[in-house]
């Protein structure tokens, strides 16, 4: 089994190396194939591991005794130390990269459009003109901008919101690890992985990290991934709610998840469905959709304008240069730009259509294979692996492959690795 485990770590390492250190080293044809292949491998290889050895992955939480919990003081000390180091590094990066609309308009857009409107009691999804996007309906969902309202109220630099969200998510990840891993060495290794990933991001992409809000979205998906293994319906519902009211990227996974719940535990399926729907209605539908249902059709109506700008290249590029964001070796949008026929808008629409088709097809394939796969994989791990598949494919074919978008699936990879049954690996039962 040791060799099989190493393959998973190798796939994760390949994801890290080609996203951060060797980005575009093999140009736009090969690099995205390597990144997406590593992600898909992490999603499907556990099936073959479990088929050959049913104890390859943790199925039920460990029965940790009181003595075990009393010996966890060093673990919490390490966690606190990692948090302190994170705050120190984040402060350095934030000071080096203050909010600059010329570098990224995400935080200024959230501040001017959503936060200011909300605090003034205005309707946040009213039509807006500006940011060189023309006139459009703002499309960010509540958990994409909501945390920044509190930041504004307490006069906290918006760049710290993502850092705080990340540390909170890591705390709950620690609790999750304690409940599942007895061996302290492996516990500390896995506790360190999200922090290590963040440090790599700060080192290689510090500006993107603190001028976007992707680190906060990473925190959402870390929480989602660990709550899949909870039996508490409120915990499961909140884990789903955070990404659901943040971004659309996991929507094709949601039917897979609920079908899995329906087939395995109908009671939990009903409760999670009711709680999640209630929260979505309270936090989004009632305050924002009912006053103006038209926003559901008009949200992100500016995507063509913003996408065309990116596909035309940056202002600092020569007219003959390939668009910077498309040719970073991340995602397959560059293939459509290079090889598809038609105008730029037609190529964009083709890319969008292909992304939707590949996502929908993958969803139906996974649902079609559900009963066969579930004979080998338990229902909670199945949901996690399916999430990794769907996110990998979605971001591989996204229209504008910003490098920071691909940080999110890495959090799912980390949780997959945390499920490995190291007691079985060391033959200690």
Order of helices and strands: HHHHHEEHHHHHHHHHHHHHHH
Strand content: under 5%
Biggest beta sheet summary: 2 strands, antiparallel
**Oligomer state of the chains in this structure:** single chain
* Mean pLDDT across every amino acid position: 92
Overall number of structural domains: 1
Specify the structural class: mainly alpha
| N- to C-terminal distance | 15 Å
Helix content: 55-70%
Order of strands in the sheet with most strands: 1-2
Structural features, described:
The protein has 20 helices and 2 strands. The chain has helices at 2-21, 27-52, 66-70, 73-96, 106-119, 142-153, 159-180, 184-211, 214-227, 233-244, 254-264, 266-289, 295-298, 303-312, 333-339, 344-368, 370-374, 379-396, 408-418, 422-425, and strands at 128-129, 135-136. The mean pLDDT is 92. Helix 7 (159-180) packs antiparallel against helix 8 and helix 16 (344-368) runs antiparallel to helix 18 (379-396). The chain is globular, with a radius of gyration of 22 Å. With 429 residues, the protein is mainly α. It has one domain.
